[in-house]
Every structure is written in C-alpha cells, then in structure tokens.
Design goal:
Order of helices and strands: EHEHEHEHEHEHEHEHHHEEEHHHHHH
Number of strands: 11
Structural class: alpha/beta
Shape: globular
CATH topology of the largest domain: Rna Polymerase Sigma Factor, Chain: A
Number of domains: 2
Bound molecules: NADP nicotinamide-adenine-dinucleotide phosphate
CATH superfamily of the largest domain: RNA polymerase sigma factor, region 2, helix turn helix motif
Mean pLDDT: 97
Distance between the termini: 48 Å
Radius of gyration: 20 Å
Largest sheet: 7 strands, parallel
Low-confidence stretches: none
Helix content: 40-55%
Oligomer: single chain
Strand order of the largest sheet: 4-3-2-1-5-6-7
Length: 380
Amino acid sequence: MKLTVLGATGSIGCSTADVMLQHPDKFSAYALVGHRNSEKMLQLAKLLKPQWVVMTDAAAAERLKGQLPADVRLETGMDAATELAAAAETDMVMAAMVGSAGLPATLAAVSAGKRVGLANKECLVTAGRIFMDAARLSGAEVVPVDSEHAAVHQCLHGHDKGSVSRVILTASGGPFRDRDPATLQRVTPEEAIAHPNWDMGAKISVDSATMMNKALELIEARWLFDLPADKLSAIIHPESIIHAMVEYQDGSVLAQLAMPDMRMPIAYAMQAEPRLSTGIPWLDLAKTGVLHFQQIDELRFPAMRLVNDVLQGEDSLSIALNAANEVANAAFRDRRIAFTDIVTTVEKVLARVENIPVALLDDVWLHDEHARRLANEVIS
Ligand SMILES: NC(=O)c1ccc[n+]([C@@H]2O[C@H](COP(=O)([O-])OP(=O)(O)OC[C@H]3O[C@@H](n4cnc5c(N)ncnc54)[C@H](OP(=O)(O)O)[C@@H]3O)[C@@H](O)[C@H]2O)c1
C-alpha cells in the first residue's frame, strides 16, 4: 500500500513512519508532506525513500534542494500536497497536519475515494458535514487515528449502532488535572506542553491542558459516528489505559485498552485486520494495579461547558470554536496571553458569531476567517 503522509514531520507523522518501517513488505511512501521542518524531512526521506517530498513552506523546500536522495522529487505549496493526496498512485492518506490548514488536502483525498487515516480532528470540527458527505459520495473509508475514536471504532465493530446508548471518551486530565485553579493564570507554555502520558505536538498538548482537545474530540465523534450530542460524553481517566467505552442499551459496556502509544491506533487505521505488530509495550494490568475515573469539573475545564452549547448548535459554532482556539492556543504559546485566556477568548468569540448551518467549503473559510479576526480583536 502506497501512503501519502500529510504532516509527515510531526509527532503522528513520525509514528506513522515508524509503523511503515516495521512493515516494509506492506507499506511504502508515495509522498511525504511537511511544512517547515526540513531537517526532519531529510531524515524521513532517507529512511522511507518516497517518490515525492512536499514542503508547504517555500523556504523549507529551498533548504532541501540538492539534499534529497536520488529519485526523490521535491515540490512546494499546499496545492502540490493536495494534488498528491488525491493522486491515482496514493492508496492511503495519513492526515496528520495540525489545524484547519490540513482540510484542503484531506478533503481532496476523501473526495478522490482514498482510505484516509484521520488524525487531523480539526478537519471534522470545521467541515464535518461536508467531509462526511464527500466520503459517502466517493466511497472513501475514513478511519479514525485519534486514540479515543479508534477505540470507539473498535467497540462499535460488529455491533448494532442503534443499540448504542452512550459513547464515553476518556481524558487524561492533562498536566493541570489536580492543580489549584487559582494558579492556572500563571502556568507557562512549557508546563502546559509537558503532558503526563502522551508525547504529542505543541498545539494538541496545550489543547489537552485546557481540555479543548476533548471538546474538539466530542465534535469529531459526532460526525465520525453520526451520533447526537446526548449520546456523547467524556470522563477523566488519568492512566490513559482505557481510550474509550461504548455503552449499549442492555447495560453492557465495551472498552478498548492499550498502553498510551499512538502507534497502536495508527497501525489500526493502516490495516485493521489482521492486526499489525507495533512495538508498543504490552499492557500489564497487574502492574498498573488500579484504574481511576472522575467526572470532568466544568469550573476547572470551562471548555467542556462551551462544547455542550456547540454540540447543540449549528456548524458555524464549531468552526468558530476551532478557529478561535487555534488563534488563542498559538497566542498562549507565543506568551501573548495567559493560559486561562485561551478558553475565555473562545467564549467571547462564540458569543459574537452566528449560529447557522454551513454547507459550502467557501463559507467554512469565511466563518473561519471571521472567528480568527474576532479572536485577534479579543486578544489585542
Ligand atoms: N500527537 C498525537 O498524539 C495526536 C493524537 C491524536 C490526534 N492528533 C492530531 O493529529 C494532528 C497532528 O498532531 P501532531 O501532534 O502530530 O502535531 P505536530 O507534531 O505539531 O505536527 C504537525 C504537522 O503539521 C505540519 N504543519 C504545521 N503547520 C502547518 C501548516 N500551516 N500547513 C501545513 N502543514 C503544517 C507540521 O510541519 P512542520 O513540523 O514541518 O512545520 C507537522 O508535520 C493534530 O490535528 C492533532 O490534533 C495528534
């Protein structure tokens, strides 16, 4: 199977490369797409020998000129990434760019009927309706890579979806789960990015600390599994061993367990059956001893209060939540606002936008731009 990896230089991209290198008989790279990290791309290109390398940033592509192994062709720009994601030679796309920047290329892959491993949750949060309609039309198989959604996918497999009473996503609670909320105002980006269980990119790590990640995941689950808001829930589970549970009408609850390592859901998205070996540590429940669970406190994590309204509302609200969060998350990482200002900014933007359905991609971008402008106004 030939893969195009969007966001190859990131955390999910590198874990995907790891799984590919463990199974060279099954997978090869058609195209690797990165943004600015030319050094990482050079390493990956030497290991995976793709036919194409794309850096969406022109300066990063310039740095790679004359450096890549023979026969690896170099391109730049999002249009090139989008074209390769939909190319006839691509069998599967791993969608692992961060943020709504990943939408055009991922949507092109879906519209071309590719198998798509979806890590980029922002695609579904901003354009879930358009994205899933395109998949239905083209017959594309969209397989979740987010560990929680991969878990739900496994717990639903072979079962009647009409019998589902509730999907329960687990949340680690991030680095500030037990911290005095009065001190959150002063936490640094370094503290927010230091996730206790998962090694992830900077943006999603901060999203985990604010619990905005779980908010985005609930919206993602709504589109992926076509479930109404009242069947979607989340619970804190600090050990990140159970990734999600599905409760059925008879009271039975199915859970999926694994050590917290993204190579497992990535491998599952690449080939569900027969299962691939991944090299992740075996789960030793006797050693783990106890698994803990607690209700999510909406005072500590106000993002969860916001998402309840967004899930009940129309598409324009999820677009605004995502766009405002991207702006505020980046502003916090740039030390321009405090940690607690992230969710406050999103809340202020949500209060100022329309609540309407959005069925066209051009309109998604208009709502996205408007929310980004409002978020920047709030911040400045
Ligand atoms: N990491 C996890 O464990 C995890 C788990 C579940 C879901 N996800 C989701 O997977 C996605 C990727 O997360 P990650 O942790 O792998 O992020 P990451 O480590 O920050 O990597 C992001 C990737 O996107 C590229 N990128 C950044 N800005 C871009 C832009 N404007 N245009 C095109 N490409 C751009 C980066 O390129 P350069 O580095 O070359 O600049 C990099 O390849 C996110 O949507 C995240 O929510 C991640």
